[in-house]
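Backbone geometry:
***
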Amino acid sequence: MVALSMVLVFLLILSTSKSELDVKISSPGEATEWGDPDLSLPGSCQPAPSCKKCILSHPSCAWCKQLNFTASGEAEERRCASREELLARGCPPGELEEPRGQQEVLQDQPLSQGSRGGEGAIQLAPQRVRVTLRPGEPQQLQVRFLRAEGYPVDLYYLMDLSYSMKDDLEFVRQLGHALLVRLQEVTQSVRIGFGSFVDKTVLPFVSTVPSKLRHPCPTRLERCQPPFSFHHVLSLTGDAKAFEREVGRQSVSGNLDSPEGGFDAILQAALCQEQIGWRNVSRLLVFTSDDTFHTAGDGKLGGIFMPSDGHCHLDSNGLYSRSPEFDYPSVGQVAQALSAANIQPIFAVTSATLPVYQELSKLIPKSAVGELSENSSNVVQLIMDAYNSLSSTVTLEHSPLPPGIHISYQSQCGGHEKRAGEPGDRGQCNHVRINQTVNFLVTFQATRCLSEPHLLRFRALGFSEELTVELHTLCDCNCNDTQLQAPHCSDGHGHLQCGVCSFPDMLRPPPHQDALCSSTPCCNPGRLGRLCECSEAELSSPDLESGCRGPNGTGPLCSGKGRCQCGRCSCTGQSSGRLCECDDASCERHEGILCGEGADHTQAIVLGCVGGIVAVGLGLVLAYRLSVEIYDRREYIRFEKERQQLSWKQKSSLQKRHHDHHQPPLPSSRKPSSLTRVGLLTPGFSLLGGWGELGLWVYQAAACWATNGHLLRRHPRGPASCCNLASLPLRSGGHPIHKYNKESSDYRSR
């Protein structure tokens, strides 16, 4: 174990010295790839032929625009690398072109409660921001929300007037005053409206018999109105008496099947905002029914195949006039219309249909469900409970995103509560108290360039304020060294941009040269070379090509990894050298880093091996010592029991002999020998190996001779033994050296 540890330590020293030597002999101009620990995207920066393509290739890429930064024969693509690599290769920090995304707050009014009635409250901040994104680089924006007290409310009561809701209508007729009083406890600005629905007036939903169309109720003695799909009765108003008066004029109707046409009514109430009278405040739609609903596809039963067009179709009487022409809307259409109108639905339904509407509520953002009593007597309390739940839930969402833009949320709801959202999700905080501020961290990331700025809108569901974000993408370099007919480019044969001789964006090359300019610098027509130093007529000259081949003049030009320009090789990709003979592209890589250029873990591995061996060795030694100690204690206890039994027998025999022969009794035990008393034999004496066993045997022989005068003999089944019990020597502390053998009536040495 010691030898192995010494070998590992030697390897450790050798590897350390080798790493130091590698650092010393590394060429300062050699390209090195560095991983960016803060980069969330995979991969690393790779060479690119231009500054624009460089910054678009990876968010960690930078471009060095220093003149003559690349060596002779080295490709201009090597100007594109990570910031750390370019600085290590000698590029001055001021010559680095590394555009970064940014954000600029254009409007940020402070959060405020507004007036007593909630008018003029500012609950969302900032209000307008300009965000510039570099593709692949995330930008994070903080959005703040303050729940104001007494925020205005518009409530539209949408009621099922099928015949089964007859007893509920009697109670709703006196609902207006009580509902306004309860809502005025939380806000001073509240308005209520009323609408009703039954079903489409076609078979098999409604009987089309003329008499049934006039009076669909079971008995002709009771008050009943003709069936209809949706009827807008009362626009939003603050007059409770007008609400009770208009609702009092309503009567029930009837249909044939159980599901109702409630989705038609919800969609029209959300789309016909002018007719309903919605304000730009908190909007609540209370939907009451005792049955389920028809959805898209059910209209085919009545011969209706045209899908709902998503437009308002109320006539002058407030009736949905084109109901027989369009199918029922889908759940997705209803959810989208409510979200677009910023309406929060409250489904007040009976216990029989409660599970259905609970599942529906999961598909509609910012909705609530409550159980309605048989006669709707608890509807006011149900509405107040749902309103408190909805108003205390803050959900931040955004308008549709342009292609290539991704958004994620992180909600900071106060205290230790944080909720991380998935990309494309929404931010949400629950149980937000009045006057409490919550924060949302919105992360933007672009994967492609936008052709023009895009306006993105954020809003908290159920509230009127909006945040407008101007999205821009940063997809080109802003080099300030652009020179037309620059002297650096062979006395004006090219244009200087970002440190290389090429056409600026305002002077793009002809279409036939555009492909060439994508990989090599562009010069004036007829000129080529890194600095536009030669003409096209000289390209076929054998003398010029000879400088791009090997010493024997054979082989491909520039080793097949570059272009021969002006008698010199212009290498492509990661190739380098006079003839582009050096190439790092074929070397093995791990996570984009060349093998051998990353961190050297040899030292840690060797230290771990040495530490592991030492730990295992110490564990084995401790286990051995522990087992020896346990074994010695057990043998000592066993020996003491046998010695006491033998001592008692010997004492009885001696007393008998003394009585017969009048002789004094012999002592019951012998004192330990001087060697044992001074502690020359210890439990660890056997660790000396073979020499220890030989010394133990010599000691035992001497003890036997000194005590009884008998020689030591070898027991056939064990080590050396004394032939007399009385001659048994003891170890220091009373531990026995010998073990009694019951078969041979003597003691065996351990």
Observations:
- Residues 14-40, 503-521, 665-692, 707-750 have pLDDT under 50 and may be disordered.
